[in-house]
Amino acid sequence: MPAVAELRGLWQRSLIVLPDGSRDTTTEVRWLQGLRAYADLRRPSPIPDYSHVSKLADLTQHDCLRLADQQGFRDADAPTEPAAGALLRDSRTGSQAMLVRVGEHFMFARDRPVSQPPLTSPPPGQTLRDCVAAASSLRECQALVDCEISFGTATGLAFHITASTLPYRIGDMLTLDPRWDVVQSEGDQAALSPPGIHSLRAQ
């Protein structure tokens, strides 16, 4: 088994064989392994057409159901070779995020804003899709899928989003305003330089 230190960088999966013997060759998977931090984005293919969506409020319940089929992870693991990462907290809502950069690639993973419902993850045994399907209103559907995992390329000060769990973010530049506090960081923080990152306040 390879050591974590050998896995630094961007990985993409073409096949997984599940315990029941079924094979998945269509899910679009990106895993970005940093110093210790990592983020993972998994989107079922084909990616639906979201050209009618420019903000969260444009999502229909059907859109929310399709977005709920996506998966993603963020965490920190054993040390690897140099990269950069930061665990962030929104000083207004208390929600957390992680920004990981390795070379020209970055991933940004943000929790749901905890100041708006729903405040918790799906109950054990229920998927996000189950929760969206049972939601009592479109606003609740939108709040459930308002958690972001975005992937993109970093060139100088420009962090360009090319894939995201929130389709209206694709094509945007990643910006972080001063409300984000740095909870933990690793690696060369100069590499984490989207607009606003210089205003982050270390706690």
Descriptive report:
With 203 residues, the chain is mainly β. The protein has one domain. The protein has three helices and 13 strands. A seven-stranded mixed β-sheet has the order 11-10-9-8-7-12-13, with no helix packed on it. It has a four-stranded antiparallel β-sheet with strand order 1-4-5-6, with no helix packed on it. Strands 2-3 form a two-stranded antiparallel ribbon. It starts with 8 loop residues before the first strand and ends with a strand.
Please outline what is shown here.
This protein has 203 residues and is mainly beta. Helices cover 10% and strands 36% of the residues.
Helix content: 10-25%
Number of domains: 1
- Gyration radius from CA atoms, angstroms: 17 Å
**Percentage of residues in DSSP E strands:** 35-45%
The helix-and-strand class reads: mainly beta
- The tally of helices reads 3
**Largest sheet report:** 7 strands, mixed
Mean pLDDT: 78
Q: Helix and strand succession?
A: EEEEEHEEEEHHEEEE
Helices and strands in order:
Elements: E1 9-13, E2 16-17, E3 23-24, E4 28-33, E5 37-43, H1 61-67, E6 71-76, E7 84-90, E8 96-102, E9 105-110, H2 128-134, H3 138-144, E10 148-155, E11 158-164, E12 180-187, E13 201-202
